[in-house]
Amino acid sequence: MASRSERVLIVGGGLGGLAAAIHLAAQGQRVILFEQHEQVGGKLNLHTAEGYTFDTGPSLLTMPWIIRDLFATAGRRREDYLELVPVEPTCRYTWPDGTCFDAAQRLPDLLDAVRRLEPADVGGLLRFLAHTAGVYERVSDRFLLHPFDGFAELLSLEFLQNGLRIDALRTMDTAVRGFFRSPYLRQVFNRYATYNGSSPYLTPATFNVIAYIEMVEGGWYVRGGMYTLARALLRLAEELGVEVQTGCAVSAIETASGVVRGVRLADGRTVAGTQVIVNADPRYTYANLLQGQQRTALRLATLEPSCSGFVLLLGIDCVYEALRHHNIFFSADYPREFAAIFQKGVPAPDPTVYVNVTSVTDPQHAPPGHMNLFVLVNAPAVNERVNWRREAAGYRDTVLAKLERMGLHNLRQHIVYEHWMTPLDLQQRYNAAGGAIYGLASNNPFTAFLRPPLRAREVGNLYFVGGGTHPGGGIPLVLLSGQAVARRVLDDSCKVR
Question: For the whole model, what pTM was predicted?
């Protein structure tokens, strides 16, 4: 048990910070969590207006057993806090030529859908799943379930033996082409690179495990909206005694002799702590919250950020029967789209558009006869080539015109509520460098080793949690980072004693 004079401070109430708080409090640690906004959740958040409710962050849940295990850690049952429902189909994909593909959760239905596109690819899908199952087996423990603190930890015989077998030396697109003939299916499986904000033409084929996990374990939705997950974790944390202070921004992390001593709040107060966990972008942290860390801040600034996003929240006064819970409207030239975002640093002229409609599953998220459309387009991180204040309105028209061409007829005439967010807005709201949604891009085989470690090297008793560190972005990985950081905090506390 922790001494009452010892307390862990957590900066940021995203899912990673909440998960770390729960794991620590369940072990008797005294924890105080500071969140600058009035509600927790970080990028997992919501927007409500005029009878519409929108999830504004992650919209699909995979690996639901991670949430089950998190509640079990605290002696609770997930079912008493959350209802998870499978999304069927997981996603509907539509192409400019009118071709449509439903990614079914049931394998027989999925194989039938694949057969309709390309009969030869039925065998290709089965081979793909077998291949990625082997990759997942090799990476799950060392990279996901027990993420590492640095490259030195991986210099083991086991890693050297498996290093060439995790498919890290070819790109996702190259691997996908080896399994699928259909250009439609190649585009579907390449899309999984965007789950961590990267390009399928650059990111290692290791990340094909994302598709494997979704297809084998299913895609899930939290009844009531994804933000219900943040509410449930907040409730659990407070039941365990975590002190959560919202509307409470941290302006600095206090250190002495190279070790953290607490935090200074924006209102001038200082709070002492024996250890500090930061659930914020490490690049922002080193540049703005830590003194004397300019060298690390400059080094992190040279790393490639993930893509950002251009978001439209649309309340519409009609129902499009063709829309499912998750929908993708593909671009005609996928390589050109990613070249625009990552090489030219400009919005794609013909973007792939993702539309999430939670009112399909939760009708109360829109008035009767209406729908709530969360529209997301991948966009470059903030840079000098794009002035979003000037270009946002025009790009909004580009996106809406594309949706109208691809089946949402007269969409603009049906909009009765609208709100948009640009990469600049995301950068300012979440202190995310460049508005990057997923931290660093994974556009080369070495990015995983360059991410800031869970345990900071430059400052003692300082830790990072969330999508900016290991194992990466997305709900399950962020929750796993909270577990991993809590384990390190507890281990380090025992060493001090």
Answer: 0.94
